[in-house]
């Protein structure tokens, strides 16, 4: 197991290097380069820009700049925002809890719902429920998340007035859990839709596969009741592909969260991203790209380790 | 032997039979055909010029009069005309992006799969790296860099979504290149390029076709989303995405302005997704996701 | 042989076994481990041995479809074991191969016409305009109608596909064709037809063949000489008659005893070998055959027996083979 952990950590290194190269490259490709906020500002003189370049070390060879930048990333110095000059990492971390809350609640809903639908579909294969569920999942996967969000706002916030249309709290209610929950319902529903569909499809096929295996037939022949067969035999075995899915789907979850946050004005990382985009805050944009990519790499690593912990055979592969 | 490597021609009939059995896929294909026709013949179907303003006739509801079957928007422009022309834009971007995606993905996949070794390793680590970034993030950042034209939007979408295609093609090539017809070509002295593009690529056509269909759906979705955020197709050129942006301002009073373009996007994405799903079942029973 | 068309000596193909982690080499599959062969012009050499003994790998290495890790391959007097793609090009026209599986050896997405025109395209022979005529001629040679060119491989039976494979091998008018069990995937009734076709072509064109087979009975119809392989090495080479009546190697003798009626009139006590064929990743020391050999001596486990000529054209790699 220690060998496996070391091996997987080692595998993450080229990914981290690749991710940082792409992030660094994009920053230099950006119009106006890393100093866009100065170069694009007509009131700043050319010689001032030269001075700023030297201050930021941009007169040095590219590889030196990269190494400086990358070591900065890994030691927590992610640069400063153009407007306000705040540390980028602080700005991002400030928004992380809201995003994690939204992603977490959507993921929990989606896993519970998707898993139940998938397992039921697998157990009652080809039943009316199964056909409806698989078709419905295909429909859900084709739904543009942002439009679904707009429609949800229209129906539940504007027409029915059941729920607030956006934000995280009512004015003056900051910290009120009930208010938070009311605001959380619609974004969670919207973000969970696509993930639920994916989970129901994957868990259905994972369980179908497990149920066809010998040990399931043996358990049945031994007279183990259906519910126990499902819980004690099928679940542990179907868990592996589903944990892997958890890791693989992380980037999609971020994408979905970004879309959902823009629709609902949810003050998380997605909202920050779009605001930074509008203000051409390249340091924040690059920082967020790096942050999500590192998050994804770690997520996949954890998923793999979890699988290896469940199934010793994986470690030998 | 893999089903995808199985023969064409006589098989086209069998594939068609399998595809037809799939009722949703057939419906998807029908919707796609309808959309393509309406985009192609938009000038003939559209009641009027989509950019024609008529401030006297703002916010007409749908089905109220024949001059504007689907009503008018905040500037009195005809909604049906804008939907049809917007569809042209969305489908063009979707198709060009798909071609970019498929060409890039197929090229990288076949190179990695066929050459193997260090090349394969480097290319696949590159793919892994690209997949670490949430696509919407990557897409928006790059889209914000370049001046938004139809071509640049299509290219940006295409170049940020080829990774899955390259993995699919690589897997297929890894399996195909071990077959004896490749050894036969090498024994004849065929060049690597000939083996890659004449012998192997046509045999990977089935999974590529499926991926291509599904990629149109996701490209249409991406275009509408970045246009909605203002980084895609720019007004006055209509696109379903920027129609939604406009409509959002009048959401509580004239909801149909938002419902119609959204429904058009949904219909298109579903059409291509269902068709792709059916094609997968028909062409490649290995990948079947029943029922 | 004074001036053989092909002379292979000490041929080795070792595949690395790599660890799943850091991909470092942790072992070696000695698929071909020192093979010596000679083929004269117009001659048929049969290469016989059990499944997994390295026959296909030997054939593919001779054609340079797999890179040999050692040894020499001389074709028409020229050493080609180390040639790169460009220096190999002229030899591609002189050696060809017919594969075992007629389903996997034809590109399913190409018409038969396209498959048969490929050799001419690759070597820029003739003009695009005269290719249909060349293809039709090839098809006629192997007994197929010229309309076959328009159809796809899956529209043909196994025997017909194998004829197409033979036609492709003939296109460049080679001097040597390696047949890797060319009939073992076919119905018994079809096998004879294909064998007869190959014999006819040999007579007409003076072709040399290496016929790979795991079946000694098939070999008795076609071969001039036979080489018997065991675990990556050739253990005995002899003219066909000699091999059937005067086999010297204990492994060859065991193989022959398993053939029900190799040559009419001979009876042999059936000799069943003990144990399984060892893995080529862990071949036994000394004589590869010693753990199963009924007459093994202590030295057999230590010293590799080198091939010794016991009679003209008859070489045996066994310490105990009498000269
Ligand atoms: N690419 C490879 N990598 C590792 N080992 C290989 C490779 N190709 C073949 N081998 C091994 O080399 C040995 C010889 O294989 P080969 O195909 O040459 O045998 P064969 O005599 O043709 O058998 P058969 O009668 O089954 O065709 C086998 O043990 C095989 O597993
Ligand atoms: S060398 Fe020894 S072990 Fe090998 S075949 Fe001869 S007698 Fe048997
Ligand atoms: Mg073989």
UniProtKB/TrEMBL annotation, chain A:
The chain crosses the membrane at residues 12-30, 100-123, 135-157, 177-199, 242-264, 284-310. GO terms for cellular component: plasma membrane. InterPro entries: BPD_transp_1_N, MetI-like, MetI-like_sf. Keywords: Cell membrane, Membrane, Transmembrane, Transmembrane helix, Transport. It is found in: Cell membrane. It holds the Pfam family BPD_transp_1. Gene3D superfamilies: MetI-like. PROSITE patterns: ABC_TM1. This is ABC transporter permease. One of its GO terms (biological process) is transmembrane transport. Belongs to the binding-protein-dependent transport system permease family. Residues 96-303 form the ABC transmembrane type-1 domain. The lineage of its organism: Bacteria, Pseudomonadati, Pseudomonadota, Alphaproteobacteria, Acetobacterales. The keyword Transport applies. It is a multi-pass membrane protein. Coiled coil: none annotated. Signal peptide: none annotated.
From TrEMBL, chain B:
InterPro entries: BP-dependent_transpt_permease, MetI-like, MetI-like_sf, OppC_N. Pfam families: BPD_transp_1, OppC_N. The chain crosses the membrane at residues 24-46, 89-115, 136-157, 254-276. One of its GO terms (biological process) is transmembrane transport. It is found in: Cell membrane. One of its GO terms (cellular component) is plasma membrane. It comes from the Bacteria. Residues 87-276 form the ABC transmembrane type-1 domain. Belongs to the binding-protein-dependent transport system permease family. This is ABC transporter permease. It comes from Neoroseomonas marina.
Automatic annotation (TrEMBL), chain C:
PROSITE patterns: ABC_TRANSPORTER_1 (PS00211), ABC_TRANSPORTER_2 (PS50893). Residues 17-256 form the ABC transporter domain. One of its GO terms (biological process) is peptide transport. SUPFAM superfamilies: P-loop containing nucleoside triphosphate hydrolases (SSF52540). InterPro entries: AAA+_ATPase, ABC_transp_ATP-bind, ABC_transporter-like_ATP-bd, ABC_transporter-like_CS, Oligopep_ABC_C, P-loop_NTPase. It is found in: Cell inner membrane. Pfam families: ABC_tran, oligo_HPY. The keyword Transmembrane helix does not apply. GO terms for molecular function: ATP binding; ATP hydrolysis activity. Keywords: ATP-binding, Nucleotide-binding, Transport. It is a peripheral membrane protein. One of its GO terms (cellular component) is plasma membrane. Belongs to the ABC transporter superfamily. NCBIfam families: oligo_HPY. PANTHER family: D,D-DIPEPTIDE TRANSPORT ATP-BINDING PROTEIN DDPF-RELATED, TRANSPORT ATP-BINDING PROTEIN. This is ATP-binding cassette domain-containing protein.
